[in-house]
TrEMBL record:
Pfam families: ABC2_membrane_3. It comes from Sulfobacillus benefaciens. Gene3D superfamilies: abc type-2 transporter like domain (3.40.1710.10). NCBIfam families: pip_yhgE_Cterm. One of its GO terms (molecular function) is ABC-type transporter activity. This is ABC-2 type transporter transmembrane domain-containing protein. GO terms for cellular component: membrane. It is found in: Membrane. The keyword Nucleotide-binding does not apply. Keywords: Membrane, Transmembrane, Transmembrane helix.
């Protein structure tokens, strides 16, 4: 029995090592490149066109510089840079911005994006625009409430002075009424008509005094109300949205790459098993055991390289480390069994079917976007796709999510493995569709140099 060149030569072992690293390279390169894009939005350049030179407009520019790469340019240059894709966003500060703001008028900034250059970049910058708008609104609210608070306190002080003046005037009017009353009594003995007139004056003075008292009382109420208003306005600038609700993350995932990891880890093992069929294609039944053992060993090597590699290369911290290794092993052998049965029974056609299944599962497994956002067709097939089960299991191992579905998904993948292996071993025969060679095989001994 001849020894396999794949297992007995250094070139064969080099090929095996290279294929065993395919899943790791696939996952590590992509996840590493986009591990935390939202944490690096400050790297995207922003062109700022400032048509106003007031203090408030300069403050806006400084606030933008704290979180972004800001380039101060003219309007023409900004438009040119945006259309060429050199900047991600264009911000225009209008003329008289500071003057209008100081008078309590809001003059909005203009934000210009170009989704045609890069759609995802435009989506990311929309989040930046919303953050800038929220920051400016908070600053305006703080300024407005501070001004209102100061005005209320000044009005409160003035109303206090008014109340004091009215109280003094009330006291003087009472003295005047008393004097007029005495004068009326003295004049009564002298002249009845004069006494009657003085009495009317006294009564009028008393009425004025009573009205003064009521006015002073009202002024005191105004003073008390304005004081309460000033005290109520004082804490308002410290109000923030968290006072109106609490957000609770049950199984938090802190990075974009960690959220995509279940999808790419499952996908990369499928790709690895598919590439392995290039080194170990289907053959006759006599060497089936050797092919199965060799390809299974290669699949397990891919799992070990992938799991160990992503833990070392990427800042990935599985919540359940042992489950992480176990889940990847189950997924690896399940994919191995499926693709081996396709390669053994259908040859090159089996590889094509494996690629088609990969494409369908990429769209229907829900590895990136929630399935309710997908089309009805993919929503319908989603629960029945093996990649769906795999993604759910890796999500559980990494973050603890979808715990109620764990054992059901384990059983499905295990059943898929057993069924595929049983078909490969137990059902004889095959229908291999191998593509014709591009060039005719030259059987002559070509030793020309």
């Amino acid at each position: 029995m001849h020894r396999s060149p794949l297992l007995s030569t250094w070139k064969g072992w080099l090929a095996l090592v290279a294929v065993s690293l395919i899943p790791l390279l696939y996952s590590a390169f992509y996840l590493g490149a986009f591990w935390n894009p939202y944490g690096h939005l400050h790297r995207l350049p922003i062109a700022v066109v400032n048509h106003d030179q007031g203090h408030d407009s300069q403050a806006v520019v400084q606030s933008l510089r704290q979180a972004n790469r800001v380039i101060l340019v003219s309007n023409r240059t900004a438009q040119s840079e945006l259309h060429r894709g050199q900047v991600a966003e264009m911000v225009i500060i209008p003329a008289n911005y500071a003057q209008k703001l100081s008078r309590g008028h809001i003059l909005p900034l203009t934000f210009v994006l170009d989704p045609g250059n890069n759609y995802l970049e435009a989506l990311l910058m929309q989040r930046q625009v919303e953050a800038i708008q929220s920051s400016l609104a908070a600053q305006y609210q703080h300024t407005a409430l501070t001004t209102l608070n100061r005005a209320a306190k000044r009005l409160s002080g003035a109303s206090g002075q008014l109340s004091g003046g009215l109280t003094a005037l009330h006291a003087k009017s009472q003295e005047l009424a008393s004097a007029a009353n005495q004068l009326g009594q003295q004049a009564a003995a002298m002249n009845s008509p004069l006494a009657s007139g003085i009495t009317h004056i006294s009564q009028g003075q008393m009425a004025v005094s009573n009205n003064m008292a009521k006015t002073a009382c009202s002024a005191n109420k105004i003073y008390s109300g304005l004081t309460s208003l000033g005290d109520s306005l004082a804490p308002l600038p410290q109000v923030n949205p968290s006072h109106f609700g609490h957000l609770i993350m049950v199984n938090p995932v802190n990075q974009y790459g960690a959220g995509l990891a279940p999808y790419f880890l499952s996908l990369s093992l499928w790709v690895g098993a598919l590439v392995a069929t290039v080194l170990i294609p289907g053959g006759n039944r006599r060497t089936l055991t050797l092919r199965q053992h060799t390809s299974l060993g290669l699949s397990l090597a891919q799992v070990v390289a992938l799991a160990a590699g992503v833990l070392v290369i990427l800042p990935l911290s599985p919540r359940m480390p042992w489950a992480f290794w176990g889940v990847l092993t189950l997924i690896g052998v399940a994919w191995w069994a499926v693709i081996r049965v396709l390669a053994e029974k259908l040859g090159d056609a089996g590889r094509i079917i494996a690629i088609a299944l990969l494409v369908i599962q990429l769209a229907g497994s829900g590895g990136v976007y929630p399935m309710p956002l997908s089309s009805p067709f993919f929503q319908a097939i989603h629960p029945y796709l093996p990649m769906t089960w795999a993604v759910n299991l890796v999500r559980y191992a990494l973050s603890g999510g979808l715990k109620p579905l764990v054992w059901a998904n384990v059983e499905k993948l295990a059943a898929l493995f057993v069924a595929s292996w049983a078909i490969t071993r137990g059902i004889p025969g095959h229908w291999r569709f191998n593509t014709p060679l591009l060039e005719a095989v030259d059987t002559s001994d070509d030793t020309a140099t």
